[in-house]
Amino acid sequence: MSSDDDITVRLVTPQEASLLIGLIWSCYGETYIDPSFYDETAVSELLASRRLHSIGAFTDAGQLVGHMGITLRPHGGITADAGMTLVDPRFRGRGIARRVAVGLAEQSMALGLVGVHDYPVTVHAATQRIGAGFGVDTGLMLANMPGDVVFQEMETPTPDSRTSSLIRWLPFGLAPERSVYLPERYREQIQALYAEAHLTRTVLPSDDHLGERQSQLESAYDERRQILRVAVMRGSSDLAAKVEAEIGGAVKRGGLVAQVDLPLADPATPVGTETLRAQGFSFAGLLPEYRDGDVLRMQWLADSVDDAAFSILSTDSTRAIEEFVLKDRGSKSG
Ligand SMILES: CC(C)(COP(=O)(O)OP(=O)(O)OC[C@H]1O[C@@H](n2cnc3c(N)ncnc32)[C@H](O)[C@@H]1OP(=O)(O)O)[C@@H](O)C(=O)NCCC(=O)NCCS
User: Fold this and answer.
1) Distance from the CA of 32 to the center of ligand 1, in angstroms?
2) What was the pLDDT predicted at 156?
């Protein structure tokens, strides 16, 4: 990928899993958000399976000092999740994260991805600044990060409270043109995001009621994050009952947040969106090409969650999406 002064950017091999684990320790101690990343066999297997593509910054001595990851999704597709941005505290402020980000762009293109979704934290502004001006900020997931994640050697103003993460679309290729069904209340916002991202979308008239067949959902509960994630494959008249049952199950296990993805290729999504709003959901974000086309993410927070946690936002565009998300949350019963 690239080599400059004493730093070389290249892919991390499965045999180097222990180096990645060491870097996670130096950045997060024992508090990293995904506990499986402390297990060398699991990390090595993940790298060998090529579900995780790790882009590393190495010193001449072979020390891994910077990292970003591209995680392919189980259902495949033409986009993936970016993240795991890590720079050893002793090597920060030298532009290493930016150089790894260039490696991430190169690797994404080599994989044929038309873009990746990135989720910069808001406990500090560093990662937001790395992609600023290149990506499009399309959402904000409230209370997405537990308060006990410790960012070593970073100033974080709200220790112990859950914090929000942005959703950022980083385009690396030409996405297909698509037809979408947009909820009226979010139509203007979503179309503005499409325009900003140069995505060609035709808006079609949607169904005015949910069909009688059964909804199809895939759900997963993340214990560490205390977040329920639901992907709606098809929304039908039992959507509210099914989502309520999923939330009930998650709350019993300590769940505090639910994120539900609705496909914008489904003519029932606009009425499904209103169904979710009646259950206390509000707009989290637009994820272009996330799964069989674009996805609208809606979010729900338990009453005990303080959604007023302070976010550090670095640009006008991040502040604009926060404003939209908070306004929609404030009006969620309407
Ligand atoms: C975030 C992190 C990867 C930045 O690495 P880095 O190599 O020091 O970053 P760079 O030198 O390439 O700088 C990139 C941008 O971030 C900014 N930045 C770096 N550290 C920062 C900090 N502590 N606070 C605010 N901005 C910061 C830089 O100023 C630069 O932006 P600019 O060019 O607009 O000024 C590193 O601090 C880290 O590993 N932190 C802990 C883990 C983490 O928070 N990961 C991100 C999760 S989304």
Assistant:
1) 17
2) 76
